[in-house]
Design brief:
Blueprint lengths: L3 H19 L8 H11 L6 H12 L4 H22 L9 E2 L2 E2 L1 H4 L2 H19 L8 H15 L4 H10 L7 H11 L1 H13 L6 H28 L2 H4 L5 H4 L5 H5 L1 H19 L6 H12 L3
Antiparallel strand pairs: 1-2
């Protein structure tokens, strides 16, 4: 849609403002931890997950303030995962979002505490009394985010990723890993946005869940392609890291041409999932954005 860029700008501005207010000021004790938390979260990132929350929320005619809380909670979990992933005991990276990673800028212990604190702040934000009219729905959101973040979601996917270094996974194994590591939180963002407003039919929620699963995989396929093709300055993180660490990727498994074809297929399937859902244009726009991103 012609005004997609204007819409993303509005949502990104709302999200940045909300995160600014949620994160403790660096003048509040413990000052170093709070400064590092803000360093990890603010002024960087594509904010794809908050955009997905707001786009899905339009389908349910959700209140923008409620969507802000859900969007921030997902983004805080994502930010914590990046801080921990970059640490020497994990992926051992020194660059994230075009600046030194948290453990480089501060130290390992501070980075560990930043991740812990961001995760708890995410659930504190989502558990705010009175956030939703129906407490049962609020519990559902908390449950969804917890599952997507834990051993059956993102953390579990990271464990599989670490155990797969030096191995060539087959496509089913690679898909299983990324459905958890990258896809779980993206899928969760879609479903959380959809639950924040008017109740939707089960068939609609099922289609949105399928959509979330497909774009979670799509995001990872594009990420693998960019890691193979782009430079560090463009990505804002170390390019070629997967190949250097002998990690299994869609590019190493399929090759660049077939990885691109897979991305096209996933995009087509995701758009088909949305075809019968009213007010889903923003989600469709975001799926195309994910497929065409260059960083």
């Amino acid at each position: 849609m012609p005004d997609f860029q204007a819409w993303t700008t509005r949502v990104l501005t709302r999200t940045e403002d909300a995160l600014q207010h949620l994160l403790p000021l660096p003048s509040i004790a413990p000052e170093r931890l709070h400064a590092a938390m803000r360093y990890a979260v603010l002024e960087g990132g594509k904010r794809v997950r908050p955009l997905l929350v707001h786009a899905a929320g339009e389908i349910a005619r959700a209140d923008a303030g409620v969507l802000d809380a859900a969007a921030c909670s997902v983004e805080l979990v994502h930010a914590y995962s990046l801080v921990h992933d970059d640490m020497p005991c994990m992926d051992d990276d020194t660059l994230r979002r075009g600046k030194p990673t948290v453990h480089v800028q501060y130290d390992d212990a501070t980075a560990l505490l930043v991740g812990d604190a961001l995760q708890t702040l995410a659930f504190q934000t989502l558990a705010r009394p009175g956030l939703l009219e129906h407490p049962g729905t609020q519990v559902e959101l908390l449950h969804d985010l917890a599952v997507a973040s834990g051993s059956r979601g993102m953390a579990g996917g990271q464990a599989i990723d670490l155990a797969s270094v030096g191995r060539q996974l087959d496509r089913a194994e690679l898909e299983f890993m990324h459905i958890h590591k990258t896809g779980a939180l993206i899928r969760c963002a879609v479903m959380m946005g959809a639950r924040c407003g008017e109740p939707l039919e089960l068939t609609t929620l099922d289609r949105l869940d399928h959509f979330g699963k497909r774009i979670g995989l799509l995001f990872q396929v594009i990420d693998d392609i960019l890691d193979a093709e782009s430079d560090t300055a463009t990505l804002g993180k170390t390019a070629g890291k997967d190949a250097a660490h002998d990690k299994p990727t869609y590019v190493s498994l399929l090759g660049l041409a077939d990885a691109r074809r897979l991305a096209d297929e996933l995009l087509d399937q995701a758009l088909e999932d949305l075809s019968a859902i009213p007010r889903s244009e923003r989600l469709a726009d975001l799926a195309r954005f994910i497929a065409r991103r260059r960083f």
